[in-house]
Amino acid sequence: MTSSRVVTVAAIQCPLGGSREENVERVISHVETAAARGAQVILPPELFEGPYFCRHEKTEFFSMARPLEDNPTIETFSELARRLGVVIPISFFEKANHAYYNSVAMLDASGELLGLYRKSHIPDGPGYEEKFYFRPGDTGFIAWPTQHGVIGVGICWDQWYPECARSMMLEGAELLLYPTAIGSEPADPGLDTKDPWQRVMIGHAVANVVPVVAANRIGTEEDQSFYGASFICNHRGDKLAELGRDEEGVIVQAFDLDELARMRAGWGFFRDRRPDLYEPLLTADGERWG
Amino acid sequence: MTSSRVVTVAAIQCPLGGSREENVERVISHVETAAARGAQVILPPELFEGPYFCRHEKTEFFSMARPLEDNPTIETFSELARRLGVVIPISFFEKANHAYYNSVAMLDASGELLGLYRKSHIPDGPGYEEKFYFRPGDTGFIAWPTQHGVIGVGICWDQWYPECARSMMLEGAELLLYPTAIGSEPADPGLDTKDPWQRVMIGHAVANVVPVVAANRIGTEEDQSFYGASFICNHRGDKLAELGRDEEGVIVQAFDLDELARMRAGWGFFRDRRPDLYEPLLTADGERWG
Predict the structure, then answer these.
(1) What are the start-end ranges of the E strands in chain B?
(2) Could you tell me the pTM of the whole model?
(3) In Å, how far is B272's CA from the nearest CA of chain A?
(4) Taking residues B252-264, what's their average pLDDT?
(5) How many CB atoms are closer than 10 A to CB A241?
(6) How close A119 comes to chain B (CA, Å)?
(7) CA-nearest residue of chain A to B141?
(8) What distance in Å separates residue A24's CA from the closest CA in chain B?
(9) With contacts defined as CB-CB under 8 Å, which chain A residues touch B140?
């Protein structure tokens, strides 16, 4: 007898340039739509409570950060997750005493908070000045055992790192999710990163024999346009669902996690890994000092 | 002043079902063609001396293995590399006392043997019974400082592993090359791995901001058809050159390694890596025993 365990995932894509209340209402509406279409795991974009403030380096924006334990947005979505019976990773700007992080609160389908992941890889450059705000995360990479599969979540810049994807898989992840805020490069108008952005995550899907879900925002905020292109791909890297550069909505896709586990074993990638040779990965430049 | 260092790379794609002499002559001819088109780094396919014998598990095939130091094929190509002034990684079946490896001898443009890389990841399954022949390599991943750039070479199954690509980059590689023998799956005729095969290497290109060159064989050997699709992609994963599934020939592409180094620094991926969080990569399943 061949086991089957089907989980339906969704990504939300929308503009998020409004107030916190407007953005939360908009995301709630999309979560409800996705759930109505059968989704059990629903991914909103990164830092969806507001405009992507990291284009500026302004001290005043630190006041938007909230602790995990006193966070009305997380409370609202916890209630929604419970009501709809869906898993929702909530991306938010976290204040933890004097440290600030770009974090995800993982909400199970019961509404329970499973815990916290803090973005490990922090970008910095024109339009994406995240090192001004966020301390690099200290949680390590996490695979969450939810009611709808074991789920790994990386946050935006994390998505470019094979180490992040592989680490979540080694912890047991069955689906990889990436909330994102990416678009134009104000300092380099000719640079369109949309294709590389999709390709590197498609590479993770193939290398780990796992579906990948990416949710990005759309719309123009001041001089920056977010390019959407949210997608869901299968374990071969086939894009099964994708939204356009200006398209608001949700994409929904079902996967059989048991069938994926069989295929993952059959491919043999995890059988043939060579941890004894991977010491260079624990260095920044191939050499260890001291 | 902006520095520039242009290197032209090539991949060879051809059938290799004949005798050793026929195959070597065929590859020599393609090396000469590629060099005439300006190539300075020329990649033949994996184990090009003969048919892909690993489809069977037969003791008699061990007699084809040769030591690095007493190897007429390597001697022939060393002379060719010197004459044409080109770098050639030579894939061969290596006998080292009682151990056998799937290896690459790296020949610099002077004809000098720079050293040896032994395939680290060994596949095993119907049609690809490599674990019967090859001991998993013990050399670790290598970036070779050649006359035409610092070059990393992974061998076939290695190409599915982000750890291999990243390790070569951390050692300083500026180009990643993958000699290959891949095609149909005799036990699973409906499975076509061509797209995932390209996509995972395209993922390495993006994640490491580096061009990737893959050279595969074509043609049918007994019940197995090799699908070619050799390609060269840039640091964004754009396929700049590609051969068809049945097309014999060479593809040639120039890259400015200094410009790539600037773009690699600008992207910031190597700046933002978190080796302190990558311990799980040194495990097989997220846990350390003992």
Answers:
(1) 6-13, 41-43, 88-96, 99-107, 113-118, 143-146, 149-153, 175-179, 212-215, 218-221, 224-227, 231-233, 239-242, 249-256
(2) 0.98
(3) 6
(4) 98
(5) 16
(6) 11
(7) A277
(8) 31
(9) 277, 280
- Residue B119 bears catalytic tag: yes
* Inter-chain CB proximity A282 and B282 less than 8 Å: yes
Residue A45 in tokens: 């974009």
What's CA A35's distance to the chain center, in Å? 18
HSE of B22 in the Cβ direction (CA atoms, 13 Å)?
A: 8
Interface of A with B in 231-270 (CB under 8 A): 236-238, 266, 268-270
Distance of alpha carbon A7 from the chain centroid: 17
Q: Which of B155, B274, B283, B285 to mutate to test the interface with A (most CBs of A within 10 A)?
A: B274
A157, amino acid identity: W
CA atoms of B119 and B137, how far apart (whole Å):
5
Which 3 state secondary structure label does DSSP give A35? helix
Q: Which two tokens stand for residue B98?
A: 């009682």
Query: Measured between CB atoms, does A119 come within 8 Å of chain B?
Result: no
Check the CA dihedral A246-A249-A255-A257 and report its sign: positive
pLDDT of residue A154: 98
Residue B97's Cβ-count burial label (10 Å; 0-12, 13-18, 19+) is: exposed
d(CA A255, CA A173): 14
Distances B37 to A222, B25, B33, B40, B105 between C-alpha atoms, Å: 48, 19, 6, 9, 24
Q: Alpha-carbon distance B198 to B209, whole Å? A: 16
Q: How many CB atoms within 10 Å of residue A100?
A: 19
Q: What is the ipTM of this complex?
A: 0.97
Nearest CA in chain B to A277: B140
How confident is the model over A30-89, as pLDDT tens digits? Answer: 999 999 999 999 999 999 999 999 999 999 999 999 999 999 999 999 999 999 999 999
Q: Are A110 and A87 in contact (CB under 8 A)?
A: no
Token pair, residue A177, equals 């999710």
How many beta carbons lie within 10 A of that of residue B161, not counting itself? Answer: 25
Helices (H), chain A: 20-36, 72-84, 162-170, 194-208, 257-267
User: Dihedral (C-alpha) B277, B282, B287, B288: value to the nearest 10 degrees?
Assistant: -120
Q: What region does B172 belong to: left with phi over 0, alpha with psi -120 to 50, or beta?
A: left
Band of residue A140 on the pLDDT scale cut at 50, 70, 90:
very high
Q: Do B43 and B11 meet the contact criterion of CB atoms below 8 Å apart?
A: yes
Contact B121 A273 (CB under 8 A): yes
Burial B63-89 (b: 16+ CB within 10 A, else e): ebbbebeebebbeebbebbeebebbbb
Query: For residue B289, is pLDDT > 90?
Result: no
d(CA A195, CA A3): 36
Tally of CB atoms within 10 A around B7: 22
